[in-house]
Amino acid sequence: MLNLVLFGPPGAGKGTQSQKLIEKYGLIQLSTGDMLRSEIAQGTTLGLEAQALMAEGKLVPDAVVIGMISNKLDANRDAVGFIFDGFPRTVAQAEALDELLKSKNESIAGMIALEVDDEELEHRLLLRGKSSGRPDDANPEVIRKRIKEYNDKTTPVADFYRNQNKFTSINGIGSVEGIFDLICAIIEKLRNAA
Ligand code: AMP
Q1: Is residue 147 a part of any domain in this protein?
Q2: 169 found inside a domain
Q3: 116-168 tens-digit pLDDT
Q4: Cβ contact 96:62 at 8 Å
Q5: How many Å separate Cα 68 from the centre of its chain?
Q6: 162 an active-site residue?
Q7: Catalytic residue among 20, 72, 128, 153
């Protein structure tokens, strides 16, 4: 299995690059943001609880997203590998993911971080908000809150993987194809090392 964490702030391009990785490597994308939006669309209790936090740009509780990821891992036992997109977002989530994978004799091969500065992120998210239909993309205040949550709670996750020698970062500003090529080069290295 090839399990990757695609890391970076909201608007860094994780979703776009995940789509290309799915096509090229047949990996399964596990995006906790997409899962939560699907729960909201279905009107589930979990969705209703998450909706208010998401609308404010705050993280939903660790136990909620860890539970969703655990279910998806169980439901996709034959996968060639997973791309974790928007998860883990806290160190507690990263620890839980390691445990979940360990119980299946699996592990994270590497974290690939897309680096984009705050100003560019705000610009990209506001632009995305015009077509994404996501309420959290349309409001500059909520966008800034999401970036702040990322800087406060999520950046320590990079150190978690750095300490395991699994961290690589690349410049997330450039052409989609150019960034994809850089990601693929990292993946090839990880595969050769496996
Ligand atoms: P995203 O689509 O990844 O930008 O996530 C949208 C929103 O969903 C975030 O602003 C959080 O409110 C929530 N969310 C998504 N993934 C997580 C996670 N791993 N931990 C906590 N909250 C999350």
Answers
A1: no
A2: yes
A3: 999 999 999 999 999 989 999 999 999 999 999 999 999 999 999 999 999 99
A4: yes
A5: 14
A6: no
A7: 128
* pLDDT score of 15: 95
List beta partners, residue 111. 5, 167
Q: In this structure, what CATH number is given to the domain that contains residue 76?
A: 3.40.50.300
Task: Tell me how many domains the chain contains.
Answer: 1
Judge whether residue 98 has pLDDT over 90. Answer: yes
Q: Count of alpha carbons within 13 Å of 38, Cβ hemisphere only? A: 8
> Is residue 150 domain-resident?
no
pLDDT tens digits, 10-21 = 999 999 999 999
Mutate to test the pocket of ligand 1, among 7, 35, 53, 60 (most ligand atoms within 8 A of CB): 60
Global pTM reads: 0.96
The verdict on residue 125 lying in a domain is no
Q: Can you tell me which atom of ligand 1 is nearest the CA of 31?
A: 3
Residue type, 15: G
